[in-house]
Amino acid sequence: MTPELQRALQTCASEPIHLSGAIQPHGYLISCRLPDWSIHHVSANIEALTGAPPEAMLRQPLREFLTGDVIQTIAETVGFSDPGGPAQRAAVANIGPLAALCEVSVHAADGLVHIEVEPQQRGAGDRSPTVVAQTMIARVAQGEDEEAFHERVAEQVRQLTGYDRVMVYRFRHDDAGEVVAEARDADVPSYLGLRYPASDIPAQARRLYLHNRIRVIPDACYAPVPVLPDRTAGGQPLDLSQMSLRSVSPVHLEYLANMGVAASMSISIVAGGRLWGLIACHHRQVRHVPPGVRAAADLFGLFVSMRVAAREQQQAARIEDDARGARDALALRLSQSGNGRAALAGELDVVLRTLPADGAALLQAGRWQAAGRAPAAAAIAGLDAWLARAAHGGAPVATSRADDWCAQPGSTDGIAGVLALPLDPARGEWLLFFRCEQVEDVRWAGRPDEPFVIDADGTRIGPRASFAAWNETVRGASEPWSDADLRMAARLQLVLRDHYRTADARIAPHEELRARRGRLELDDHRSRLRQMSELLESLVHVSPAETEVLAERISRLEQDLQRLALASGSDLGALATV
């Protein structure tokens, strides 16, 4: 990565897009402070709605510009909402001297009540959003096939909104995104199957998609409308995170223009508290989507999120049930063996069922035993070096990349991911799980190593201009180890450590008894040697023949003592002192 590209990525990742200080021009903003409902912020275009210029509205009570019944409805909506939560639809009301029919939404944040107002065309969105969403849900709810479900979701959203192209866009583990389903007009290019680098939707943008489930840009060539004043009473920039009208990053608008997109809408898909993906909508002309239609899309998006989350939970529960059954079977076998430490090497086939992995290996004091797809014993040196760098605190450690633990990743026989459980690191004892590399032929929407256009002096960045398919073969990495994998590994580690302690407790008394017996035998030999020494001192008048016989017997005795010393591990020098 060049220094210029690195600076561009850092600039993009640090852009405070939630502090834009402006809204899109298709609506109006009024921000009040309770309990007196005094107006503290307005959008610069507010006069077109209320007939009063912005400076005439600031510090004035809201009742001077909205009727009491509208304010009461807004107050009730705020009362039922959580502070910091997303905006809620409050009313459809006639506002201003021209009695313009408007959709009113509201949310509370940082001590302010933010009221967003959008003019509504008469007759637009007459159908109940709830009824529309229920109809859409009924059309996609049948069937268990995930790919077909995503396709039906894209089709239903396109029928509802009329956009030229609707995509289901899923985030991967590395924050890159991939189009997994698409419904489109025949005249627009297909993006199905294309992958987009993580920099296309940076981290702060993904966080905002969690706050705003629906994001609409009716006209990507709009001129932003400033919020007056753009700072709070404390001098801080006004946080617009939860506002549906918030003006978006100029880089994003240029990105849309480079794609030939004049209007867009996105619906967040949230599973387990994280942004799973988006339902992304594109149109070639300016397109205003009525608030009622957006409300139906929001309800439909909530259903899609729940369906995705439920599917993931079912898959996780099935994997955990299988792992629990394997752990129970392993625990039973180890307990029946009498020595779980010694028996583990013979149970690697069962061990392999306790985690989603392709192979497992046991490293015990340099000995290597494996089951399934695992590297050869020659990989021990590289694994040892990686464990020395990565292991800490006795917790499982994992990597999905072969180059983390092998200097020559091409020599791993297709193995890339490793998850290691420390069983007894002091003795060099580890249990390792392996995953095969995922060889992928990826179709990128443009080159992923060229996510920005940088000017000559590096002071301005813009999005890439090309989205033509660019193919790349990716090797050397496995499916990443998930948090669920690490939790299952930690549970297996507890089971094995418990059996290790039990085995060590059984072995310890036996070893102590054998050592005690050895000490008693040694004391007995020492006593007999003393007696023999005393006897030898008394043998003064012995014939030469008898001396020869005695010397031969003493030589045999010394040999026996040497063998005894070697067998018992005692010091022969200690015996020689008697």
Percentage of residues in strands = 15-25%
Tell me the number of structural domains. Answer: 4
The second-level CATH architecture of the largest domain is 2-Layer Sandwich
Low-confidence stretches: 569-578
Q: Major beta sheet, specifics?
A: 7 strands, antiparallel
What is the C-level CATH assignment of the largest domain?
Alpha Beta
By secondary-structure content and strand pairing, the structural class works out as: alpha+beta
Estimated radius of gyration: 37 Å
Give the % helix: 25-40%
Number of strand segments:
22
Helix-strand blueprint:
Blueprint: H1 3-13, E1 22-23, E2 28-33, E3 38-43, H2 47-50, H3 54-57, H4 68-80, E4 88-95, E5 100-109, E6 112-119, H5 129-140, H6 146-161, E7 165-171, E8 177-184, E9 195-196, H7 203-211, E10 214-217, E11 225-228, H8 250-259, E12 263-271, E13 274-283, H9 291-337, H10 340-343, H11 348-351, E14 359-364, E15 367-372, H12 380-390, E16 397-399, E17 415-424, E18 429-436, E19 440-445, E20 452-454, E21 461-463, E22 469-474, H13 483-538, H14 544-568, H15 572-576
Antiparallel strand pairs: 1-11, 2-3, 2-6, 3-11, 4-5, 5-6, 7-8, 7-13, 8-9, 10-12, 12-13, 14-15, 14-18, 16-17, 17-18, 19-22, 20-21
Helix pairs in contact: 5-9, 6-9, 9-13
